[in-house]
Amino acid sequence: MVKFEKFRLKNGLRVLVHRDKTTPLAVTNLMYNVGARDESPDKTGFAHLFEHLMFGGSVNIPLFDRPLEEAGGSNNAFTSNDITNYYITLPSDNLETAFWLESDRMLGLAFSEKSLNVQKHVVCEEFRQSYLNQPYGDAWLCLMPLAYKVHPYRWPTIGADIAHIENAQMKDVKAFFNKFYYPANAILVVAGNVNVNKVKTLAEKWFGPIPPGKDYARDLPKEPAQTESRYRTIESKVPFNALYKVFHMCDRMDKNYYASDILSGILSNGKSSRLYNILVKEKKLFSELHAYLSGSLENGLFVISGKLIKGVKMKTAEKALNNELDKIKSRSVHKQEMAKVKNKMEAALQFSDMNLLARALNLAIFELLGDAEMVNEEMHRYLSVTDKQVREMANTILLPSNCSTLYYYPIKKT
Are 306 and 291 in contact (CB under 8 A)? Predict the structure, then answer.
């Protein structure tokens, strides 16, 4: 049970406090309700760019890391298609340092051409190394626009085109910041050996004076239901054939999300899972094979991806995979199989709860989804999933007409 208290400042900032007296540390997790889905199609990658720019210092604090390191702290951030998240860990006695730093860059981020050019270069290099020059790195650059035709999930967090970051102008960057990075569009979670009244005082002191900003009403286009199979074939400098299949599924708050996650676990959670046992270990068609959910807040993807053993034909591997998917749609899941997957998920949730930062992050995510209290209902929702629900999801999701397939081949030798 993760206990917490919640309050809201007049400027709209939501603050959650989780007290844990067993640790000498404190964590601040500041989540902005902005991700790659909020970008313009011709200016993608901006949310990820801001993940980097926010470490470039503020008007009053040019070197963000130095005072934090002097206070014994560390920090990092990440961006997804849905959110941008910044977190700081430090001794609880130095908690005010985190409030000072986070509030100052929310109020007055330092916009300089030098900082912008440096971070543009960093992001572009990341784009090249992780997506363009990495084996199979461009798979998602191909898959997303294949699966999504209307919704902005059709480009990954890094962006659709490296040129969008290369050509980013200061006026565009400032406009993006002013549109999304303000108190009413953020959630602050403070966890650790902290006092609730002290957190309220610090929140009012450091974040209270910041203007609330103009409310952003998200109105994204709804992705139409996919009604026919989609395919794409690419060749690149990779060692082995790879197969990717993505199926549209429900959003994160849908009651069917948990059955879908259990389904992915039955297919590929561990070396005793179906796909590993039959297609990797027994038939030796794949060297690795994974099934997982994209975890998107809006309607996401059920993903199956694997690399083929050298010499195995793509049609042979795909046919065998489809046969296994047909089996789970038509046959009951063994009780032992369900129990094994649920036990693994329960253990993962319990392990996550041992981590202070993970608790803070989960509280922020569920508060964004509508109610932070749901963090304490996750385990029950997974354990309540039935065999019937898993089969229903298999028959709803794993349909050829709902599937986008990417065939990834090594470049043919001439």
Answer: no
Q: Round to whole Å and give the CA distance between 251 and 239.
A: 35
Give the phi and the psi of residue 32 in degrees, each rounded to 5.
-100, 135
- Residue 362 CA to residue 333 CA, distance in Å, equals 30
What are the two backbone dihedrals, phi and then psi, of residue 30, each rounded to the nearest 5 degrees? Answer: -105, 110
Hey, what amino acid is at 349?
L
The rounded distance, in Å, linking the Cα atoms of 203 and 181 is: 17
Task: Write out the H or E segment, with its range, that includes residue 306.
Answer: strand 301-308
In terms of Cα–Cα distance, which of 86, 108, 85, 84 is closest to 98?
A: 86
pLDDT 10s digit of each residue in the chain, 414 long? 899 999 999 999 999 999 999 999 999 999 999 999 999 999 999 999 988 888 877 888 888 889 999 999 999 999 999 999 999 999 999 999 999 999 999 998 888 888 889 889 999 999 999 999 999 999 999 999 999 999 999 999 999 999 999 999 999 988 999 999 999 999 999 999 999 999 999 999 999 999 998 888 899 999 999 999 999 999 999 999 999 999 999 999 999 999 999 999 999 988 889 999 999 999 999 999 999 999 999 999 999 999 999 999 999 999 999 999 999 999 889 899 999 999 999 999 888 888 999 999 999 999 999 999 999 999 999 999 999 999 999 999 999 999 999 999 999 875
Question: Hey, what are 215's tokens?
Answer: 């409310």
Helix extents (H) in 285-334: 314-330
Residues 6+ apart with CB under 8 A from 414: none
182, 201, 179, 181: which is closest to 190 by C-alpha? Answer: 201
